[in-house]
Amino acid sequence: MPKLSQKAVDMPASPIRKLVPYAEQAYAKGLKVYHLNIGQPDIATPETAINAMKNADIKVLEYSHSAGFASYRNKLAAYYQKTGINVNAEDIIITTGGSEALVFGFMTTCNPGDEIIIPEPFYANYNGFAVMAGMDVVPVRATIENGFALPPVEEIEQKITAKTKAIVICNPGNPTGYLYSKEELEQLAAIVKKHDIFLFADEVYREFCYDGAVPHSVMNLKGIEENVIMIDSVSKRYSMCGARIGAVISKNKEVMAGVMKFAQARLSPPTIEQIGAEAALETPQSYFDEVIAEYVERRNVLVDGLNSIPGVFCPKPSGAFYCVAKFPVDDSDKFCQWLLEEFQYEGQTVMMAPATGFYSTKGAGKNEARLAYVLNKEALEKAVECLRAAIEQYPGRVEVSEDSKNLSSVG
Amino acid sequence: MPKLSQKAVDMPASPIRKLVPYAEQAYAKGLKVYHLNIGQPDIATPETAINAMKNADIKVLEYSHSAGFASYRNKLAAYYQKTGINVNAEDIIITTGGSEALVFGFMTTCNPGDEIIIPEPFYANYNGFAVMAGMDVVPVRATIENGFALPPVEEIEQKITAKTKAIVICNPGNPTGYLYSKEELEQLAAIVKKHDIFLFADEVYREFCYDGAVPHSVMNLKGIEENVIMIDSVSKRYSMCGARIGAVISKNKEVMAGVMKFAQARLSPPTIEQIGAEAALETPQSYFDEVIAEYVERRNVLVDGLNSIPGVFCPKPSGAFYCVAKFPVDDSDKFCQWLLEEFQYEGQTVMMAPATGFYSTKGAGKNEARLAYVLNKEALEKAVECLRAAIEQYPGRVEVSEDSKNLSSVG
């Protein structure tokens, strides 16, 4: 049998999905499992999007333009303008999800062996997309104690080599929920300008900012217009994860011409789901107001609940619908597996994503886990109860001084 | 501004789309343009597929499984079994179109610098997918005089080096319409076995075989089960190009595990269009009988019409809905552009895809063009009339001896 490629070996298995067999064991035992491990919201997709797909009068399900329907690109540009983000229709190429947008963006800008700097913890699939493009990920450490704020500029600059081609951020962040301030983005812009590298920003959680926090888009940063590539997606914004509609956005004409060649090779993004995404742009503000109010309540239930458990610390995120919490345990991979394999509390247990999969540095995040607050408040309350009981019972529990906990009450 | 990657430079621009600006000039002059340049059929999508998407009761448009819905994979396996092709559900990973299937397949099996052998002319986007995976395409020449039959085995074997990782075929072929015989496939199997390389077969046109010709799947080749990777798609079979639903199929568990890691990184194929693809499997045979009867008539109108033009030769294809024709012209790129830019016949003209884009060898196919018979018979008759007049008027016309034409009446 011929050998597989090195990429097939290097591709990471999904850290979020590797516990699935243990979850299946838990179901088999009749346990109720609270799934805080995945970013699949239970929020209803806007009816305007669903109805547009149902009512589309299609006789022949044809390809769209490789860059996506012109009508969609025009309306999407109008959405950005209305949101105060400087984007025109010609700056947009519609992709099959944010995933494809990242792959095309990476392949257009980076050669095999080039380095991209990413503050860790970061969305685990960035590793996979980097493997696909043959790039090396260079992490720079954000800490839970600082609420996952941007690491100091000097630390980022220390990582820059002749091979550095880009910095990649997710804002608001998955898995941290951290929202970069305008000042932090301007610090990044200064580095990007000084070293003339690209800045990728995955802004798919833009709509989910809480407590009056305002998201700032990299598209509005001055002086680095040619360096910025924004990644977007309808997946989370309209709870349309299954639509697989995203976008690459840049003012850099050469980048867009490069991305377009990759887009042409795969012909087009999905037609019907583009129709849904276009219609979703007419979702009324009231939908977001309701969704955001819901997420704020969920976040408070989950994060306040976690922080009320002795030895647990979770910075309160300002955006997205994830948080990373630190647990008083020896190894969160083992803890997460134990929750499914050996633990139960009144017939229930919790599934979380061990944070190690979100760090590129070996051993980092060993006592952290990501939790997605994509379930309703009652479920989250029960999940917190489960975790409280679990921490008491877990054989690998370690003592944490209250000092180190207090240190962390930032963010 | 930072430099783009070498891949962005190497990615070929679509040879099919590069004439679009000239077509737009033709529209601006008020000309009717017969589009024989693209493989977008005008055939209606089966109602069963359209209705399933319309009637899907979706509240939250969620991700599917990364390998596609289990229900779809099960029914798809049943379709293959019914078609006499040895495939089980666990041999299938659903992808976003045949395009993604090829990219995942190539990335799973080939390292940068590895070589893949492809009989040319071949589907132009294979070049793009090879660039994405960093592979080198090594063409082996099929000739119009032989109706684009498989090149002699010795010629294929001569191309095999230590870097050769796979042979790639499209069967029935785009752009040639050639259907490989069982004997030809067994010849390929022998080479694949002898050199222990992979065999990729793009079988998306399987349903379109004419005049009683029977397609043979590589999945049924004996002794190379671990080497075979089949690519499939609903795009052409059910006229669902815009659905972007395809599949990677292999009995090789390691290959499938590798592909699965790429599939997990991009989360899932589109949900609603998968529902449509699953329902499309219930399309009655009468739909295909009608569609095939229609394509046979179209093929006859186009191919017989082309062969009736002095100096033009077109082997009659047994499958798919393309043909490659040889024209008595100096340069078919120039000829195709001239048709749009300077020619008209009673207010009409024809758009074709110059064949050079389907050859990897520089200069090959210089007097050939691909025509897709995706328009109705009346339109095809008029297109032939246009081409007859065009050949008479074209300033770059070259004389062709009737001898060389007769030589070619094979296939």
Automatic annotation (TrEMBL), chains A, B:
This protein's name: Aminotransferase
Annotated ranges, domain Aminotransferase class I/classII large: 33-385
Keywords tagged on the record: Aminotransferase, Pyridoxal phosphate, Transferase
The UniProt record lists the keyword Ribosomal protein: no
Coiled coil ranges: none
EC number: 2.6.1.-
GO biological process, one term: amino acid metabolic process
Similarity field: Belongs to the class-I pyridoxal-phosphate-dependent aminotransferase family.
GO MF terms held by the record: pyridoxal phosphate binding; transaminase activity
Cofactor: pyridoxal 5'-phosphate
Pfam families (alphabetical): Aminotran_1_2
